[in-house]
Amino acid sequence: MKQMKAVRVVTAGSKVTTELRDEPLPSPGHHEVLIRVHAVSLNYRDTALLRGEYPAKTKKEGIPVSDGAGEVVAVGPGVTRVKPSDRVAVSCNTTWTGGPYIREYALTSVGFQIDGMLAEYVLFHEDALVHIPDYMSYPEAASLPCAAVTAWTALNKIEPLQPGQTVLIQGTGGVSLFALQFANMFGARVLAITSSDEKAARLKELGADAVVDYTASPEWDREILALTDGKGVDRVLDIAGEKTIRKSAACTKVGGVVVVIGFASGFGGGLPPIDILARSLTLSGSMIGSRLDFEAMLRAMARHKVRPVIDRVYPFAEFREAYGRLETGQQVGKVVIEVANQAAN
C-alpha cells in the first residue's frame, strides 16, 4: 500500500503539538478528488490552534492548515469539475459554494473541523476546488484561500468598495496586504498602521498612501482622522480585536463600516454601543468567503496579474520553523511551507 506523510495535531494533557506520521495514501470515492499538495500557507488561526486558543471545537488528531494548492492526481466516479493534472486550491469551507454564511458551513472548516492541507496528499469533494491562474506559482496560490478571500469579501461587505473611498488596514500580515493590493485595484486610498519604520516603508512600496507607527503614536486613531481631514475612513479591517476595536470605530466615518477579521490581541475590547450609535457605524464579522467569492477574486487577480506577497518559504521538513516564524509577528506577507519534493523527517 502506498504511503504518504501527514502532520497531525495531537493533544497530550494540556499541551497541543504536532506529529508527523506515515499514513496510507487515500483513494477518491464518488465526487472526490485526490490532490498532491505542492505548498501550504499559515494563518494566525493555525498558530492559535497549537496554543490551545482557537475558539471552536476541532477534529481530534486532525491534519491542520486550511490553505494550500496542488495538482489533481486522481478523481473518483462522477467528478466533472476537475481532471488529473489540473492545478487547484481548496476553499476554506468545503460546502460553502455561494450565498450568505450559515452555521452548518462551520462543520466543513478545512484544517479545523475536517482534515486540512499539511500532508503530501489530500482528499476533497470536487465542489470545494478552484482552478488557480497559470501565472501563479503553487506557493503563491497556497497563500490565497483564507487571507486573500477574507480581504476580498471584507472590502465588499455591505456594499462594494468604490474608487476614491478610504480603507484602513492594520499590520503587515496576509489579510492586510491582500486588502492593500485589492483596494489599489479598486482605486481606493489606503491608510495603514504598523509597528516599525521598516514595515512602514514596505507598506508604502506596496501602495499604501500613508502609514502611522502605532508604537510611536499610541493614539493612532487621531492620526488617521487627521489624514482624512477629521472625516474618518470609509472602511476598517480590524485584525487585532481587543486592543484595536475601539480606535477602529473612532477613526471610521459617520456611516462607515468596520469589519472584524481576527482576535490577535484578545477577545475583549469593550466597544461601547454609543460609539457605534453616535457614528451610525455598521459593524460586521468576517467568515472568510464562499467558493464563488474565491473564484471572483481569482478572476480579478488574473486580470491585474496581482501576485501575493510571500514572506518566507520553508521546506516540509521545517514546518515547525514556519509556525515559529509566524509566532514572531515579524513577517511581511505570507509564511509558506513547500510540501512537494521536500524531505520531511
What's the topology here?
Blueprint: E1 3-12, E2 15-24, E3 32-41, H1 44-50, E4 67-75, E5 87-90, E6 121-125, E7 129-131, H2 138-142, H3 144-155, E8 166-170, H4 174-186, E9 189-194, H5 197-205, E10 210-213, H6 220-227, E11 233-238, H7 245-250, E12 252-260, H8 273-278, E13 282-285, H9 291-304, E14 310-315, H10 319-328, E15 334-338
Parallel strand pairs: 8-9, 8-11, 9-10, 11-12, 12-13, 14-15
Antiparallel strand pairs: 1-2, 3-4, 3-6, 3-15, 4-5, 5-7
Helix pairs in contact: 3-4
Question: Your description of this structure?
Answer:
- With 345 residues, the protein is an alpha/beta fold.
- Helices cover 26% and strands 28% of the residues.
- The protein has ten helices and 15 strands.
- It has helices spanning 44-50, 138-142, 144-155, 174-186, 197-205, 220-227, 245-250, 273-278, 291-304, 319-328, and strands spanning 3-12, 15-24, 32-41, 67-75, 87-90, 121-125, 129-131, 166-170, 189-194, 210-213, 233-238, 252-260, 282-285, 310-315, 334-338.
- The strands form three sheets. Strands 3, 4, 5, 6, 7, 14 and 15 form a seven-stranded mixed sheet that branches.
- The longest helix has 14 residues, at 291-304.
- It is globular, with a radius of gyration of 20 Å.
- The mean pLDDT is 93.
- Residues 13-337 form the Enoyl reductase (ER) domain.
- InterPro entries: ADH-like_C, ADH-like_N, ER, GroES-like_sf, NAD(P)-bd_dom_sf, Zinc_ADH-like.
Low-confidence stretches: none
* End-to-end C-alpha gap: 20 Å
What's the β-strand tally? 15
Q: Report the C-alpha radius of gyration, rounded.
A: 20 Å
| Tally of alpha and pi helices | 10
Q: How would you sum up the global shape?
A: globular
| Residues in helix, % | 25-40%
Strand fraction equals 25-35%
Spell the H/E element sequence.
Answer: EEEHEEEEHHEHEHEHEHEHEHEHE
| Largest sheet, strands/sense/barrel | 7 strands, mixed
